[in-house]
Amino acid sequence: MGKTLVYPKGISNTANRYAKRVTYDLGPIHSIINAATHLDVAFVPGGDDPFPTIIPMIGQMGSYEFPSNGIDEPLDCYIHGYVSARMMNMARAAGDKGLPLCISATHVDGLVLSLSPFSHSYNYRSVVLHGYGVPVTDEDEKNYAMKLITDGVVAKRWDNSRTPPTAGEFQSTTILRVKIVAGSGKVRDGEVSDEKQDIDSMEVREKVWSGIVPVWQTLGEPVPSSTNMVKEVPAYLKEYVSKVTEENKKHAYAAMKLPAP
Amino acid sequence: MGKTLVYPKGISNTANRYAKRVTYDLGPIHSIINAATHLDVAFVPGGDDPFPTIIPMIGQMGSYEFPSNGIDEPLDCYIHGYVSARMMNMARAAGDKGLPLCISATHVDGLVLSLSPFSHSYNYRSVVLHGYGVPVTDEDEKNYAMKLITDGVVAKRWDNSRTPPTAGEFQSTTILRVKIVAGSGKVRDGEVSDEKQDIDSMEVREKVWSGIVPVWQTLGEPVPSSTNMVKEVPAYLKEYVSKVTEENKKHAYAAMKLPAP
């Protein structure tokens, strides 16, 4: 009991600066990914192109092989979105080994305004994962991943929308399963931090306001489409909208060690 | 008059899918970068490491060489934050040519919930830039960039905090100037989009709620630090907090062709 699973420290994920902010624990890392409205996914096209490329995508941690695995147990990252032809062609060409990818998620929880700009910071939660992406071809696994990702956008949405997919939808949807080999998370919270020289200067402190501006992502009142025929906003959607906003707000205030107002 | 400057289309930034959502215009691209609370910056470590790495940083578009350039004119991207030792060492080693970087910014403006999960989408504004990063060494340029970036976090903060920097602060701060060689933006807005077969099915439309959940980043009431001595939240900060929240909200509703409530 109480064993915490961690990602191994390797060359690509070992943080040196602000080491106390870093976590390698699977639980918090996977939670930060799953709470993000979008993920940034980077790949290296190679050839004549000297640049890595970042594509914003949506994704969720899950395990088709071990579907009962909890958030703090080994999981793959399933991603979907604008899978550029280049990324997909490279992932297919990479075969079983997969295409090396970097996946990141960042939540800004507050602007930390200290006396000197050089001590300014953010309260934030961020994650960087490294792994190998393989296109999902198995029908069952693709269905599993599509439900996982859809319910990551709005909980229970899969069962409350027109499913199952048609053959055309199924074929035109591309999903990558990313087998994670390294991961790390960084969390900054707590008080404004200042240099002693500034704290000791009444002149500075009488002039400069210091404190934190809490920041959170708000989900607003759902707006029906012009073709919508369902009169009331369904309960699962209402609940999701208020739950997510409350949780985001709670993170922003918890980072300041305060209850959300 | 009326000439719109655009980024050239190259191998690394030409979008093929959803081409009508894409812009190469400098103005909207730079605005999306400057409105982001954080940027994702990717580099390729190389050597034994097969993965690109993404680091969340803060940054702003600006031009030290041509400080009067407007938002729709050529600008560099100045970035700052947790510049990992690897990224910095590589940027230094790259010399005048600079280190190839990818910079991305994404704003989620709404969850677009259509009848079928496969037509689900987001309203969003995203940008991907490619460019060469060089550490800023010139003192004047570094001061320019530090003010630019600080005022990007909170407008007018530089002049309202303890400046100028001490020698120690100045030396320990690392800023990269990224010369942009390619850029593209994508903007998705407007109505829910559905397949004809779903729109034509009364059974589907009577069962599934369709519409958009607006999403925006909220800046909350500033919370003073335990050492703060300025009694009132200063006007520039109050104004910034409400202005940014209003603008974010306006984007979420404008994407639905609605005025913000």
UniProtKB/TrEMBL annotation, chains A, B:
SUPFAM superfamilies in the cross-refs: FMN-binding split barrel
Highest taxon of the lineage: Eukaryota
Signal peptide annotation: none
Pfam families documented for this protein: Pyridox_ox_2
PANTHER family found in the cross-reference section: 5-NITROIMIDAZOLE ANTIBIOTICS RESISTANCE PROTEIN, NIMA-FAMILY-RELATED PROTEIN-RELATED, FLAVIN-NUCLEOTIDE-BINDING PROTEIN
Full protein name: Flavin-nucleotide-binding protein
